[in-house]
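Trying the structure run again after the queue cleared.
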Amino acid sequence: MVASLAPPPESDLSRRENAGFLVSTTFVCLASVRDVYLGDIFQRVSPPLVAMLAFVLGSAIFLTVGLVGARQSFPILWEERRTLFWVNISTASAWIMFLYALKLIEPSIVQVLYSGIGPLSVNWIEGSVLTAAPKIRLTTAERLSFVALAVTLLLAIALVRMGWSGWGQMSVGRASLGLCLAAFGGISISISTMLCRKLNDAGVAPSALLAFRFPMTIAAAAALAALSPSGIPRSFSWIDPLVVVAAVLIVVPNYINQLAISLASPLTVRVVLAVAPVLIFILQIPEGRLTTSPYSVVVALVYGVAAVAVAATRGWAIRTINEAPMGAA
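Done. Tokens:
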């Protein structure tokens, strides 16, 4: 019994961390391809239609996997159905806003706002969503890194509003809507992620959670598609190979991201994610749909540095707290 309660050997932790790093890198690569590809396909296909196909497909796959290997998670999900309800609400809000933002503004800027707003709102999220979570006082280094991140997001907003992004000049309404959708989508996905962690900590397997995470996303996408001028197509002619690829690029990274979170430390995951806007910018160049804006790549690079600084200072602060002697202030 004593041996079973001992912490995992350092070599095991190192192997998990290395595996998590590789899985996180795979996720960032796939997600970057996804964002650029969807930004292009959404100029021709309605985002709700793609979302319907992707999340129906994903829910069916993960429900099958959950029934085979994670049935023990289903009673826990029923006990935690209130949390699961809010997971559905926050996930639907995040994905719908994210997909429309990709249609409206440059994908690399969407990723900067979508990912960058989460760390800035984490204290509010912990206080409002996870009321039992302990409040962690920010160090001076953390405050400085948060300020740098906030300045980067403001630069991204100014870039779009002034017409200096890859989209060039656009109407004030389109720019403002795209920026708001990316930012509020980022807050929603942060809430969803924290609630999902709560369910994972309660014993819910990733496959079982993914099976029941998207019903409201599917419903919201169907409603938006029905309300659109073209409505929901009565035939399946719109499901061409390109749309299927788009759906797969949503489903597969979802699972890989969940796996990365379960393997690697939050610090590792955040550091790897910080390179996403730069990678998206690079992928935009051969695609050719947008102009190559030097201002966008500068914002992406500065964001990467600021995001790594936020993750590093948070990791350092947590290690300091954990290593402090018992009873230390």
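Confidence is low (pLDDT under 50) at residues 1-7. Worth checking whether this holds up in the mutant runs.
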